[in-house]
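Notes from hallway chat w/ T.B., transcribed later so I don't forget. T.B. wanted the structure written out for a chain they're using in a teaching module, and asked if we could keep both sequence and structure tokens in one place. Agreed to drop them here.
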Amino acid sequence: MNSVLALPKESSLLLIPFCFAFVIFKNKGIIVKYYSISILFYVVFFFLRAIYLFFIDKNPSIFIGNQLVTKELNAVHFSVFVSLALFYFITKPNKTKLDYFQTLLLSGFLVLLGSKIIISTDIILLFIYYFFYSKSANKMRLRNIALLVIVFFSFLFFNIIKEKIEFEFQLNKDNNIGHTVIPKEVVGDRIISMKEAWGNEKFEQNDFFSGASFRVYQFRIFLEILTEEQVFFEGLGLNASYKKIEEKGIKYNVFQGNNITEGYQKKNFHNQYIQVFAELGVIGFILLVFILFINLKNAIKNKDFLHIAFAILMLSLFLTESFLWRQRGVVFFTVFYCLFNTTHLNNKE
């Protein structure tokens, strides 16, 4: 029944490619242009909305994260929408002063949204663009020097980075990678480390999971479900994992929610790869990895940086969000996947 109810939401995976099979887009740039402009309008609207609410409540947190764009829209998801628009303006040739202002506006908004995984990915993409795809990269040997420096420091700081990761795994703090799924003030002050999330047999109702520790806990129960239900090949079924996640949440006594918010047991895996594996089995997981690989392969082959940015953003986003299990996510992914890949195919033909 859960799978049947989820079909309308996921129907975009079938309907949008079907439409692209009959409509030929010769110039994807026009579509990306108007998409980016529309995102700018949203950004201006949310800025004005935040300023208005600030004058009413005098609460500066209205400019940060989910409060800036509402929890329903989700700051991490909107960060992806903004990022693609940002790279359109960054890669735009013959920029005007207005283009630079729009780039600055989108960059500032992205920082305020506070998604560490998306901001980190964008920084990496910026390095790739300026060292390999910008006009200056073709004129200088700077990229080669940068690569040597990166390799050198990678070897130099390998042990330091390893020790840091091990330290973070055992540390009780809420400033780990990823947005917190429930605010700490709602749950309690006792912060669960990633090590505790992996090993504790029971939790208390005031135990707060940081973004990273919650994902460690979710991966732990995914492995348990996979073993106990013996669904490696076929999966539990579309949306059928929610019941199992809830059962595990009750078993481990994670925060069950209150009159303000729902508990941890009501949350999905917050990882698209795990979500697909749990519900569609190893075949579904392999199919997801395959379409992401084809997307990245085509982007690199065609030397289209916007396509590369989209491909890498999806790869990183899926590590922390079940993006395709939200209607806005599946529509965004399917439209741009088809747009980037079919446009190159049509031009080649």
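Follow-up for T.B.: The chain has a mean pLDDT of 84. Might be a good example for the class.
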